[in-house]
């Protein structure tokens, strides 16, 4: 599952858990983006902060892990590169790429989109406020197996990282929207605070 994870929240975790259960996956690898191409121009938190929040959020689940592949590539992140790296790392695995309905809706604009479906099966999960519809993809996927893209309904959590950032920047709570350790990490690192200028010794 790729994402900016700025910050990771319970919507991401429920999506991963649901897909793992439905497809009987051995492992879900969370891959925080390096430089997210779709978010260029927007300010994104430091990769190490997003990576550490993802580690904190997933640490208690033995089937969840975090990959640094996109962060360490040091270039703009394209999912096709993520999947090529995962394929190299797990040569014999059946790969599934988990994505929310909003992200899946514009998959045809992703770099080398046709190769994506050769590298992995795609699972689109429902997300409040976005339509779970792949009719527009059907024509383009005619030459691919029927399970190239599967859509599944998951418990609706109307949580987004943008809203978590907005809340944190306004001093409003993010408790219960993100895991407890992530709440504490955000506060400890003064993430999303407009002018964080604490005094540091050391
Ligand atoms: P932002 O508001 O900054 O775009 P986000 O909440 O959309 O953040 P991303 O890191 O952009 O989080 O998303 C990573 C993946 O998780 C995407 O495929 C996205 O569609 C999916 N996703 C995010 N939030 C949810 C949610 N509440 N329910 C289902 N899928 C989600
Ligand atoms: Mg998003």
From TrEMBL:
Query: Which pathway does the UniProt entry assign to this protein?
Result: Cofactor biosynthesis; NAD(+) biosynthesis; deamido-NAD(+) from nicotinate D-ribonucleotide: step 1/1
Key word Nucleotide-binding present:
yes
Q: Which GO terms describe its biological process?
A: NAD+ biosynthetic process
Q: List the SUPFAM superfamilies hit by this protein, alphabetically.
A: Nucleotidylyl transferase
Instruction: Report which residue ranges the record marks as coiled coil.
Output: none
Q: Which InterPro entries match?
A: Cyt_trans-like (IPR004821), NadD/NMNAT (IPR005248), Rossmann-like_a/b/a_fold (IPR014729)
Keyword hit for ATP-binding: yes
At the top level, the lineage of the source is Bacteria
Task: Identify a single GO molecular function assigned to this protein.
Answer: nicotinate-nucleotide adenylyltransferase activity
The reaction(s) catalysed by this protein are: nicotinate beta-D-ribonucleotide + ATP + H(+) = deamido-NAD(+) + diphosphate
Its Enzyme Commission number(s) read 2.7.7.18
Membership in a protein family: Belongs to the NadD family.
- This chain belongs to the protein called Probable nicotinate-nucleotide adenylyltransferase
From which lineage does this chain's organism come? Bacteria, Bacillati, Actinomycetota, Actinomycetes, Mycobacteriales
